[in-house]
Amino acid sequence: MKEFRYIDGAAILKLNEEACVGCGNCVTVCPHRIFALHDKKAGIVDYDACMECGACANNCPVAAIYVNPDDGCGCAAYIINSWISKVTGKRVNMFNN
Amino acid sequence: MPGYTVNPFVDGFQETPAGPVPRVKTSLGPADHLGTIRARTGIAGNQYKINPGLYCAGNPSSHSPVLVTANYKLSFDSLRKELSNLDAWILVADTRGINVWCAAGKKTFSADEIALQVKRAKLSAIVSHRQLILPQFAAIGVAAHTLQKKCGFNGVFGPLRAADIPRFMKNGRQADEPMRTVTFTVTERSLLVPVEICMLWKVFFLVVPGLFILSGIGPDIFSFKACVERGLTAVGATVTAILAGSMLTPILLPWIPGRQFWLKGLLTGGVMGLAFIFLVNDQAGVMEKGSLWLWVVAIASYTGMNFTGATPFTSLSGVEKEMQRGLPVQFGGALLAIVLWIVAPFVN
Ligand code: SF4
Ligand code: SF4
To answer: Is A3 a domain residue?
Structure first.
């Protein structure tokens, strides 16, 4: 999305070009159009636009893509809860939702 | 059938080799709109579901396309209202009433779940082709390349938005770049505001009594008059902050400078906080005004930051980063505001 940019260099997204078989699935599913195919290999063309949704990794048949596997909803309340969980070792729900 | 009621969005049944399949209306009625309001304000929460399984629109044949969707009613509604000129089958997966887009939907909207519904509906007896059209968002949970093995059907990804389905079908089931690219228009953002605000009710009602009590503290230990008067001012500041963070920040999002949401909320809170202390009674001293302003800024920054959870472009890693910076500022600001608020009556 051109009019919305988030923090650069934050997303965890890795592509193993050697493993890629060029199926194009990642190009299709990414809602931010981050991949492009060149000579039957996928490449990352706009790394900083990645929202870590995981659609690409989930649809890569050869597991050539790695995305931050944490799949929380990304709102502040959720993250505070997950931080508290890490400290206490328990699942908590201090804040709603 | 005794004991059954037909959903208001069903207007008949289509006979198929696997039994009758409910045909859905392709326009939304009053009951649908009411339900939409309930879901959008969070009253119905994420639990606004319809029964999973096979439905149809128009007069589909064995060659008609099969469109897959989530059993969140809003997702289902947004799909069926696009089908007025199409004959299609609609396969509703059980995503526990959570929309396709929600992260929690990742685990429930899966290839396994779709395969299960394909078999339950005996889809292979109803259609002669072996293709399922999935919403692109479903890719977050559905590994389409595994569907073939699981149920004999191939998954292809349709457009991101149901509104593009008619164009997608006309294009020979090809999605162009705009259909595949996520948007976050002012309308889309505005629709999220009620949920953002309703999420805060619980915390709000915990905070309000505290504000009244703190406002009553003064040189004569506890003044009921101050409790009410200053308490109301403090609650007004809190409401201003919530409006700044959970309403103005989302709506004005692209026009507020900066990328991090806690800063966007901080800026909006800063402006709204100034407006608030100008409007509030002039009896408030400098210290009290400073306290109110800080309070609005801190709360607006937090509620603005919380909006990251609802946008389709913020990565979780990025949100964690900005929270490490934002939270200390918000917490410090709120604490300082409270201290100033308590100290002010003693100084005057
Ligand atoms: S995680 Fe999502 S946004 Fe990031 S590259 Fe993959 S599909 Fe695109
Ligand atoms: S989905 Fe995987 S194999 Fe296919 S193009 Fe992308 S990286 Fe390559």
So the answer is: no
Contact by Cβ (8 Å): A75, B310: yes
**CB-based contact, A88 to chain B, within 8 Å:** no
Question: Which residues line the pocket of ligand 1, CB cutoff 6 A?
Answer: A 13, 29-30, 32, 34, 50-56, 67
Domains of chain B are: 10-180 (3.40.50.11600), 186-347 (no CATH)
- The H or E element containing residue B68 is strand B66-70
Residue A7 to residue A29: CA distance in whole angstroms: 22
The residue whose two tokens read 């939270």 is B327
Interface pTM (ipTM) of the complex?
0.86
**What is the Å distance from ligand 1's center to B146 Cα?**
19
The token duo for B2 is 């005794």
Q: Are B199 and B309 spatial neighbours (Cβ–Cβ below 8 Å)? A: no
From the CA of B202, how far away is ligand 1's center (Å)? 34
Q: Is residue A4 part of a domain?
A: no
Q: What confidence tier does A97 reach under pLDDT thresholds 50, 70, 90?
A: very low
Interface check for A85 against chain B (CB to CB < 8 A): the answer is no
Give the pLDDT of residue B193: 92
Nearest to B82 by CA among B191, B173, B6, B167: B167
CB contact under 8 A, A6 and B160: no
Domains in chain A: how many in total?
A: 1
Distance B172 CA to ligand 2 centre (A): 24
Label the pairing between strands B21-24 and B10-14. Answer: antiparallel
The ligand placed nearest to the CA atom of residue A67 is 1
Q: What's the whole-number average pLDDT of chain B? A: 91
Atom of ligand 2 nearest to the CA of A22: 5
In a domain, A95, yes or no: no
Which residues 116-145 of chain B have a CB within 8 Å of chain A?
A: 136-137, 139-145
The CATH number for A70's domain is 3.30.70.20
Handedness of CA B111, A25, B184, B68 (dihedral sign): negative
- Beta-carbon separation of A1 and B181 below 8 A: yes
Residue A43 in any domain: the answer is: yes
- Which domain, by its residues, includes A51? 13-88
Q: Which of B102, B182, B309 lies nearest to residue A1, judging by beta carbons? A: B182
pLDDT digits (tens, 9 = 90+) for B145-156: 999 999 999 999
Does residue B268 sit at the A interface (CB-CB below 8 Å)?
no
Q: Give pLDDT tens digits for B20-51.
A: 999 999 999 888 888 888 877 766 555 678 89
On the question of pLDDT at A71 being above 80, the answer is no
